[in-house]
Amino acid sequence: MNLAVVKKEISNIVLLKKILLQYGISLGFWSLADGLVRRLGMRSLYEKTHYRRYEVCKTYLRKHYGGIVSDHKQKGHIDPGDPIQKNSTIWVFWWQGEENAPYPVNLCMESVRRNAGLHPVVVLDQNNYDKYVEIPEYVLKKFREGKISIAHFSDILRISLLKRYGGIWLDSTFYLTAPLQEDLYDYSFFSISHGGHRKWVVSKDLWSLGLLASGKNSAFMDYCYDMLMEYWKKENIPICYLLLDCMMSLGFEDILEFRALITKVPVNNLGVFDFLEEIRNQKCDEKVYQKLSERAYIHQLTYKKDYRLNVRGGKTYFGRLTEEAYGTKKI
User: Fold this and answer.
1) Does residue 315 share a domain with residue 198?
2) pTM (2 d.p.)
3) What pLDDT score was predicted for residue 331?
4) Has residue 174 been placed in a domain?
5) 133-170 pLDDT per residue, tens
6) In angstroms, rounded to a whole number, what is the distance separating the alpha carbons of residues 256 and 251?
7) Domains identified in the chain, total number
8) Quick one: 160 and 217 in the same domain?
9) C-beta separation of 147 from 11 below 8 A
10) CA 105 to CA 11: how far, in whole Å?
11) Alpha helices in 193-285 (DSSP H)
């Protein structure tokens, strides 16, 4: 176990203690159980603890922030907003700056630019994000104090941008092998959807924060923004990692127009996580690779794992993935 992992685990323990003290035994217990079972690789039990943990989180949010849900629900007719445009901005975020992005995040950003079409690509970082949105001072203060992590700050940033401008948020670890699908422009909201495949996850696999696209004047983005702002006005720690997912889930459950907006999105990119698995560094079989290509054109990668272009005897599946973009060029 390297030093970075040790530091992260210590940080998790400190956060767990704060959750226990501030939010009570129930959330503390299920947060501990969820993390422990996941680390032990107990898949079937993990599904139960994960589901239970986030149901407890949603119960807390409903109790303390349900008024925002009710306010949006009572607005009567809720306009889904304008359609996503073919020239909407693609937003990408790397806090340290694109020039400091590690491998393979740098490849992901290059792939987005290659496949952006008419979409301008804006890479946000610590030096330029405030040129595009105004984040309330109470949020920035808690961010500077370490009460809000970069991950949770990125949630605030993505929703603030989509509320103000619309556009397409793409996580910096998404690698594109083709332009965004054409039918995306038929919708006011779009995300990666697996059609409710995993009922035990917060999003029910109906959306992914890694790709959130919205047209302008979106009531759903307004709702998400109001929830985030009110939460961080009152709270000093995140009740859970998937905080924004929980807020979106409450909107999905309680407001019919938001549910219709989300369920309208077609199933897409079923293989988005394929290159997080061990197959990425295995010798490529072209027939298998073609099947992988049919499952997704957006692939999530990570700088936390090793990616090899070649193994003894030929290219890896990852090497084959990048070959289409780089040919024989050495990466």
Assistant:
1) no
2) 0.93
3) 35
4) yes
5) 999 999 999 999 999 999 999 999 999 999 999 999 99
6) 8
7) 3
8) yes
9) no
10) 24
11) 219-234, 243-254, 256-263
